[in-house]
TrEMBL record:
The lineage of its organism: Bacteria, Bacillati, Actinomycetota, Actinomycetes, Mycobacteriales. It comes from Nocardia fluminea. Residues 161-284 form the Acyl-CoA thioesterase-like C-terminal domain. This is Acyl-CoA thioesterase. InterPro entries: ACOT8-like_C, Acyl-CoA_hotdog, HotDog_dom_sf, Sec_Metab_Biosynth-Assoc, TesB_ACOT8-like_N. Residues 35-124 form the Acyl-CoA thioesterase-like N-terminal HotDog domain. Coiled coil: none annotated.
């Protein structure tokens, strides 16, 4: 497989897979490409890899049984064995359980013959009706406020977070003390929205919400800890298909320790519904 690496590739390209031949009837194999747009620094963004592997698992599940096409990856447990570079990747999908309510599948993301990311997926049916109960309302505006920090390609953040070249991304300055050279609690809030072409398809919006559940800068930045914060393990939940429009992302930590910190993401769509969540354990960089 050889594909051109576009620098301005839409998010939908991440989900565009080509089936590969295999001698193992129990394993689905697909090829894909992740463009440099979907990287943090030189390496592929973790949430993008979760969304891409979810697309491979969905494809194999549907091809195994068309009656399961309405199911979606409602939970993903991801371990990062290595850090893939942008470019060509392969996905190996193993269906572990097939049921009417719940299906299970494992996916390996492979690059240059090495498995670099391993994700266990739980498939089920997404919520679509009105919620029976929801937690306290957030005071975060549904769309970016005028004074918000907007990523740009020539800004210090934009030069590192290349994902901002593939989607609209804005940081809420009221929680982003590090932007002013100050310190504050380990928490951040962002707005993110796919470009127009990626917003039309509901399945792409759902995959984008899974990606957005890992989009915040590491919250210890508000404590003065800057640098690479490699994720040890991440669990992602997809709750419903987002409505078109801005997604609100609220990132918080319960504890920032000597070596590790936890970070939770809550993703809310333009209607105020929770569409995705995540929790990850990551390594903290040394303070400057």
């Amino acid at each position: 497989m050889t594909r051109e690496l576009a620098t301005d590739a839409p998010f939908s390209q991440v989900l565009d897979l080509t089936e590969l031949t295999t001698t193992d009837a129990e394993t689905g194999r697909y090829a894909g490409v992740i463009a440099p747009t979907w990287t943090i620094g030189p390496k592929v963004h973790g949430g993008t890899m979760v969304a891409a592997t979810a697309a491979a698992a969905t494809r194999w599940l549907t091809e195994a049984d068309e009656s399961l096409a309405r199911m979606a990856p409602i939970a993903a447990s991801t371990d990062f064995l290595g850090a893939p570079d942008p470019g060509e990747v392969e996905y190996a999908v193993h269906l572990r359980k097939k049921g009417r309510q719940i299906c299970l599948a494992d996916v390996d993301l492979i690059q240059n013959g090495r498995t670099l990311v391993r994700t266990a997926f739980t498939f089920g049916h997404l919520d679509s009706a009105e919620t029976r109960w929801s937690g306290p309302d957030t005071d975060m505006a549904a769309a970016p406020v005028d004074e918000a920090f907007r990523y740009s390609a020539d800004s210090p953040m934009g030069k590192i977070v290349h994902v901002s070249q593939g989607a609209h991304m804005v940081i809420d300055p009221t929680w982003g003390e590090f932007l002013r050279g100050e310190t504050g609690p380990p928490r951040l809030r962002l707005w993110i929205r796919p470009f127009d072409g990626d917003e039309a398809d509901p399945r792409t919006r759902a995959a984008f919400a899974m990606m957005a559940a890992d989009i915040s800068p590491p919250v210890p930045m508000n404590l003065g800890h800057f640098g690479w914060s490699p994720t040890v393990q991440m669990t992602t939940y997809l709750r419903r298909i987002p409505a078109p429009g801005w997604l609100r992302v609220i990132a918080t930590a319960r504890e920032v320790g000597e070596r590790m910190f936890d970070e939770d993401h809550l993703v809310i769509d333009s209607t105020g519904a929770v569409v995705a969540q995540s929790r990850q354990l990551a390594l903290i960089p040394a303070a400057r």
